[in-house]
Design brief:
Keywords: Acyltransferase, Transferase. Belongs to the arylamine N-acetyltransferase family. Its EC number is 2.3.1.118. By secondary structure, the protein is an alpha+beta fold. The chain has eight helices and 13 strands. It has one domain: 2-Layer Sandwich (Arylamine N-acetyltransferase fold), CATH 3.30.2140.20.
Length: 281
């Protein structure tokens, strides 16, 4: 195996024998979701997010940070390709909030061709992301370790939906067109710099758990879900508590000379938000 695959497996704490089959794809998908947190801190710090192979390996593996879709699925694609999988990235339009007009292509996901079938893999959509690959098949309800999903086909477009309170909620739409690295760079830049981007106005984090649970963070508000139900939630009293929680509950690396950050740096980020929790609330 290559050095990046070894580093990836070390971060995932996985010592299995990889094969180019569905079992390996499912295992790596879930472990990636449960180990490398979704987070947007670099947008807020602010730091430019680089998408080349070296930058992704350095930040997500060596520094043990997380990232958002362009980083998460960029690393996942590279790892799968170096294992021998037939995989490429696609770009989607996020429609989770039912926008009145179609937004730009700002979500990176993966198409995997395996065992004469096509699969959608995605480790980078935050709290609602897939935690297992699903078949590229229209109208089929598919269960994952963290929820039920389906794909609808509308001419050349596909729409990914998840089942939420007995109602299908659209997440994003995409087609299968071949994309270039410059397309991901453009989508990444828009996501990080567009003034109305939600990544610029909230600290957002998520890490899934192997037992069907997940941890989420929005600014100072922490929530733990189990099988879709809230089992723990609280507001953090201050930045010191937030800094500790990022490490203890999300496994986020903060000490790297380049990609780490201090409690004081985090405090400056959080001071920019309009709301702040009340101690003991």
């Amino acid at each position: 195996m290559t050095s990046v695959v070894n580093a990836w497996f070390s971060r995932l704490n996985w010592s299995g024998t990889p094969k180019v089959n569905l079992d390996t794809l499912q295992t790596l998908h879930l472990r990636h979701n449960c180990t490398i947190p979704f987070e947007n801190l670099d947008v807020l710090l602010p730091r430019e997010i680089q998408l080349d192979d070296g930058a992704l390996e350095e930040k997500l593996l060596t520094a043990r940070r997380g990232g958002y879709c362009f980083e998460q699925n960029g690393l996942f694609e590279r790892g799968l390709r170096e294992l021998g999988f037939n995989v490429r990235s696609l770009l989607g339009r996020v429609v989770l909030t039912n926008p009145s007009a179609l937004p730009p292509r700002t979500h990176r996901l993966l198409l995997v061709e395996l065992e004469e079938e096509r699969w959608i893999a995605d480790v980078g959509f935050g709290g609602q992301t897939l935690t297992a690959p699903i078949r590229l098949c229209a109208g089929l309800s598919q269960k994952t370790p963290h929820g039920e999903y389906r794909l609808l086909q509308e001419r050349a477009d596909w729409v990914l939906q998840f089942l939420h309170h007995d109602r299908w909620q659209p997440m994003y739409r995409f087609d299968l067109a071949v994309q270039q690295q410059s397309d991901y760079v453009m989508g990444n830049f828009w996501s990080a710099h567009w003034p109305q981007s939600h990544f610029r106005h909230h600290l957002l984090m998520c890490r899934h758990q192997p037992d069907g649970g997940k941890l989420t963070l929005t600014n100072f508000h922490f929530t733990r879900y189990q099988d879709g139900h809230i089992v723990e939630q609280f507001n953090l009293p201050d930045t010191a508590a937030l800094y500790a929680l990022l490490q203890a509950r999300f496994g986020l690396g903060v000490d790297d000379p380049k990609h780490g950050f201090s409690e004081a740096e985090l405090a400056r980020v959080m001071a920019a938000f309009d709301t702040h929790p009340e101690a003991g609330k």
